[in-house]
Amino acid sequence: MSADVVARLERKLPGRVVTDPEALEPLRRDRSGAVAPGRPLAVVFAESVGDVQAVCRTANETGTPLVTRGAGSGLAGGAIAGDGELVLSTERMTRILEISIPNQLAVVEPGLFNGDLNRQLAAHGLWWPPDPASKEFSTVGGNIAMNAGGLLCAKYGVTRESVLALKVVLADGSLLEVGHRTVKGVTGYDLCALMIGSEGTLGVIVEATLKVRPAVTGTVPTIGAYFDSIPDAAAASAAVTAAGLRPAIMELLDTYMLQTVGDYHGIDLISAGAAYLLIQTDGPGALDEAERILAEVTRVGGRAELTTDPETAASLVDVRRSGFIALEATGRAMLVEDVAVPRDRMPDMYARIAEISAKYGVDIPAPSHAGDGNLHPSFLFDGSSSEVPEYVWQAAEELFTAALELGGTLSGEHGIGTLKRRFLGAELGAEQYELQRRIKQVFDPKGILNPGKVFAA
Amino acid sequence: MSADVVARLERKLPGRVVTDPEALEPLRRDRSGAVAPGRPLAVVFAESVGDVQAVCRTANETGTPLVTRGAGSGLAGGAIAGDGELVLSTERMTRILEISIPNQLAVVEPGLFNGDLNRQLAAHGLWWPPDPASKEFSTVGGNIAMNAGGLLCAKYGVTRESVLALKVVLADGSLLEVGHRTVKGVTGYDLCALMIGSEGTLGVIVEATLKVRPAVTGTVPTIGAYFDSIPDAAAASAAVTAAGLRPAIMELLDTYMLQTVGDYHGIDLISAGAAYLLIQTDGPGALDEAERILAEVTRVGGRAELTTDPETAASLVDVRRSGFIALEATGRAMLVEDVAVPRDRMPDMYARIAEISAKYGVDIPAPSHAGDGNLHPSFLFDGSSSEVPEYVWQAAEELFTAALELGGTLSGEHGIGTLKRRFLGAELGAEQYELQRRIKQVFDPKGILNPGKVFAA
């Protein structure tokens, strides 16, 4: 049967089906460390909407599980593929079909990298705001499938706010057009928003109409502020928001992160303080806003400086952007989590992380998008990231419980994938969990689209 | 059976059930002119989530159609109730449960007026951006149920972008919590976005966590610009957007509207030009942006002036805000439509409206939110707004077709309700129409929630 599926696809889509074990091996993984059991049957490199429809039809007719995959940059095991599964790669669908300046939109294929899109847009004075740390190696389709976040969300919103319309191929191969090319549109249910963040379980995104905006120009003032403690820094970021100030970027590095990033770059960051806030403002009035933020940060005990020099600013931003790489470079295995809490609960969340770290004897550096309350507690352990020890999972579960108790969520921007599916029910409750599964069945009655992701298989 | 339902509700919810015909009569109507056939059984004035649950359970058990209603300000017949139907009024659920400055959110009950909320928020330096023309007599719950738009959407987004989370009572009386209290959250499908704009067909919104932002302060420069023709004005608004400028408000009044508003206020607006653009900028850099807009508008032929005097500005805005009232004051019957098109197709859309007006011999003034491409072509005729003549419907259908041909939609912000349900399939296509109905069934298996609205009964 499996051989038959592959043979059928090879006949239908010559030159686009690969079964070479070496090519399939990396598809078992993403950047989370998760590894799917076994190896997928084949990967199909779709080149057109028609190709995607053919793959879906074949998978649906034969009941073959289908995993859609962009660049494999996910952090929740959402696009990993194993035994008996077929991979649909959007890697060759990278065209920009339209850039419209008067309509402030771009129409693109899903496999295009976020960074590549934004370089093209910049040439037209435009910008697509979603800004995940992975932007140079993650695709627009993947960003949409996960409702990607990033550093700029408090001011510029999450991916959902930057997508106008989608073309989606359903499990049965039919093509669905959802959303609107217009700014406004209220005809029936918002299936476009429903698709965003659905992690490949409802359909395959084959084309996206993106809401773009004028590129932000002018000075980008940057503030670096050191604090005596992590709660102080978290309280300072909450104070900035409470003062009605809207920084583009507001990132928090805790003590462990400062040490790790410092080690990676060979610089001393730790002697200045136990925690660090990186803040940028942009747009008209940026300097004035930065000066007000500086005053606020100083008022609550920060030792802060403000720079408008682009090079100094870039290096300060890079400290934050390289945080994950610096952690990876330690060589330790890692489980990266992604809780979000209401912004005024940031100090409490850091306190809970410290408790959990002590209780389980595990290092948990937690860089955070402090501007929007999204923390990435990263559990470090010895061994392989693909085999998370049970005590780390227990610590993680305690972390999720703490986030929920503080009015938060267990995933701000990475999604559920395989890594967090066993905890999803705790957040949604049994009734909503079941309701969501029934919605899945409406789109994918045979359950062939990314089974075992988000929901338990 | 019907009498039994009412008796059961009266027992369960003493003092909250009204069956007086005079109280029921207005519930057959909204502001669109649509009138439901017959008269509803009763109206229940819910005072709590528990009340709403009780009403839903009773309606579901007895198979009684249930129409949720805020203030009845709708323009699509979405909350009108007739024979055999029960009305669930949110009129008494008007509390503000929480305003959080550090989290930039407000938690409110659904029956609160938008204007009342914003006055409360203003006292804390905050603001909820959804800004429908009806804001003084429409509820937050209604705004969410319709995904309301308004004048500020190009810059500040539609209602969907300003809602974080909802509590919703489902048809069976169960309470569902969707969305997140946090800025980011990607746990499962975005049922919060699915609820927004679902027009009372998926559940009853009983509590909303709103995303608020710092109130916009500082000078609000206002530009008034006259043009020799409607296409010239439409082209000017497209040019402003294409130049990367982001006015808060950009409204277009056509010749008929200028005449009508002028008559209403007893002033001469028409001698200055055949069309008018009203533009406001706000926030940091507002004056600089307004000056660049002024240059752009002048460059494409506008006779424009810029004012920073608040009183002059307010009167200019009021000209636009009173447009609908001025049309009503003519005493003519009216069918108000709500198409939206990509912004660069505004001149084409106005040309098509002129053609349709000539072909059917019907006056169609079309004030528009030019900044986001949303037009309100208003078909004037003699008779009663509740009995739209067939030739007007034919003209409207031609208008919808034109909007779809231009890449637009048949409703930008008013929704489908009863008035446009016969045209919804033309926009969605048969397959998506059926898919949307199946989603409705997941939430409301017995089909008791607002039946006959959005979809044909």
From TrEMBL, chains A, B:
Pfam families: FAD-oxidase_C, FAD_binding_4
Cofactor(s), by name: FAD
Annotated ranges, domain FAD-binding PCMH-type: 36-215
Domain of life: Bacteria
Keywords, comma-separated and alphabetical: FAD, Flavoprotein, Oxidoreductase
SUPFAM superfamilies: FAD-binding/transporter-associated domain-like (SSF56176), FAD-linked oxidases, C-terminal domain (SSF55103)
GO MF annotation: an example: FAD binding
Keyword Isomerase among UniProt keywords: no
UniProt xrefs under Gene3D superfamilies: 3.30.465.10, 3.30.70.2740, Vanillyl-alcohol Oxidase, Chain A, domain 4
UniProt-recorded name of the protein: FAD-binding protein
Organism: Pseudoclavibacter endophyticus
